Sequence to fold (259 residues):
Amino acid sequence: MMLVKLGGSVITDKTRYLTFRVDVLTRLVKEIVSAGQNVVLIHGAGSFGHVLASEHRIQDGYTNDSQVPAAAKVMEDVRDLNLRVMRVLNEGGLPSASLPPSAVATLKSGKLDVLDVNLFRRYLEVGISPVTFGDVALDSERRFGICSGDQLMERLARELRPERVIFVSDIDGVFTADPASDPDARLMETVDRATLDSLPRTQRCADVTGSIFGKIETMLRIASWGGDAVVLNGHAPGRLEAALRGEAVKGTRVRGDAT
Ligand code: IPE
Fold:
């Protein structure tokens, strides 16, 4: 089984509120179907989540009453995105079922606490790909908060032990410097704890759920349990399919302590 996160920056235009990239997702679904693997899918919220969530600081939990309708609206918006994703998946030939974190997960102080992983197992057993996504969820300490796709990836990787964990992003991987400002920036084929610590922390601004470095930290933990974790560019056709087939692919492989 493969665990795949389709980043919000790939399936939406993150800078424009509620902009779904149906063409990009349609191609990625073709790649998934053609690779012929069992997959558990997670997708980001992109501009269906981050714009409103950061305006109302939903990631901090409850601080004032004006956040309450905003939190509910973010849940509505990410469900809207999820439904669009589900349609592309089912019409594209990948039978899929949605498991929204607002209904199947809870947080504790901003961290994923309860998640019914058995539901994911049971859908897989009947040949249906379980799909979850970055969402607002209840928080036992802060009333509500953000359940990010990366937190879900980490929990599902730990519990389901997939053969490969693939983060589909809008960049090729991790660079030695910020490729937007440094022409000498080089893509790193592998990253481990030591190389990560030596990198300048200037690449990409953070959104409500963190920067590329936060993602790599998550990937380091996943890889330390023996899983193979890669980040690749979903805007480049064929890379997701190659990664799903277990082939070498342009991107960054994260090596944990145990690998
Ligand atoms: C964010 O989820 C969830 C909300 C803002 C509601 P993710 O962190 O997984 O989304 P992307 O991939 O960064 O868009």
